[in-house]
Amino acid sequence: MIKADRVFGIIGLVLSLWFYLESTKFNYMAEFTPGPGFFPFWVGVILAILSCWLLFDSFRRKPSKEDTKRVLPEKHALYRVGFIFLMLVGVRMFMPFLGFPITVCLFVAGILFSLERYGIGKSIGYGMAYAAVIWVIFEHFMEMGFPKGFLGI
Questions:
Q1: What pLDDT is stored for residue 84 in this prediction?
Q2: H helix or E strand, kind and range, residue 33
Q3: Which helix or strand (DSSP H or E) is residue 79 part of?
Q4: Cβ–Cβ < 8 Å for 35, 28
Q5: 46, 33 contact by CB (below 8 A)
Q6: Using CA atoms, how far apart are residues 28 and 23, in angstroms rounded to an integer?
Q7: Separation of alpha carbons 127 and 109, rounded Å
Q8: Pick from 98, 105, 107, 76: which is nearest to 152 by CA?
Q9: What gap in Å lies between CA 150 and CA 106, rounded to an integer?
Q10: Which of 16, 27, 77, 87 could form a disulfide with 73 if both were Cys (CB 3.0 to 4.6 A apart)?
């Protein structure tokens, strides 16, 4: 954790510098109220203070048992994350052709069948139910359009 704290402390300092530099492009005050540069300035200042504290604390404390623990998950878990990522890429690629409901149904069914070891029928049923509920909520109640596929749905 000490190494991670140092990395995130440095990332926080770089982000705080970026917030500060961006805030100088806007007015700090607008008449009697805070202007558009007020919030990013103070976010940068607070983030810099917290990042400096994280860095200081990472050099001050002694290593513990947690510092020697493995941070990344096992290979099997990384394969699962990679598979989900590939499924999401497939969703992005097939959404314009298949449309929203079919693509989401296949995505949910694929995840449940391959990763959660549900039966094929149960996976497809849950996928259809999930896609239908989301489609009804967004298409009818919120009146938002989804990509329509070759079937027109």
A1: 93
A2: strand 33-34
A3: helix 75-98
A4: yes
A5: no
A6: 8
A7: 5
A8: 98
A9: 16
A10: 77
35: left (phi over 0), alpha (psi -120 to 50) or beta: beta
- Is 54:9 a contact under the CB 8 Å cutoff? yes
pLDDT tens digit sequence for 117-137: 999 999 999 999 999 999 899
Q: Pull the structure tokens for residue 96.
A: 């314009």
CA dist., res. 138 & res. 134, Å (int) = 6
The token pair that represents 14 in the structure block: 């770089």
Kindly report, residue by residue over 35-92, the tens digit of the pLDDT: 999 999 999 999 999 999 999 998 998 877 777 777 677 888 889 989 999 999 999 9
> What are 1's two structure tokens?
């954790």
The two three-digit tokens of residue 147, written as one number = 């990509």
Instruction: Write out the DSSP string of 83-101.
Output: HHHHHHHHHHHHHHHHBHH
The per-residue DSSP string of 101-140 comes to HHHHHHHHHHHHHHTS---HHHHHHHHHHHHHHHHHIIII
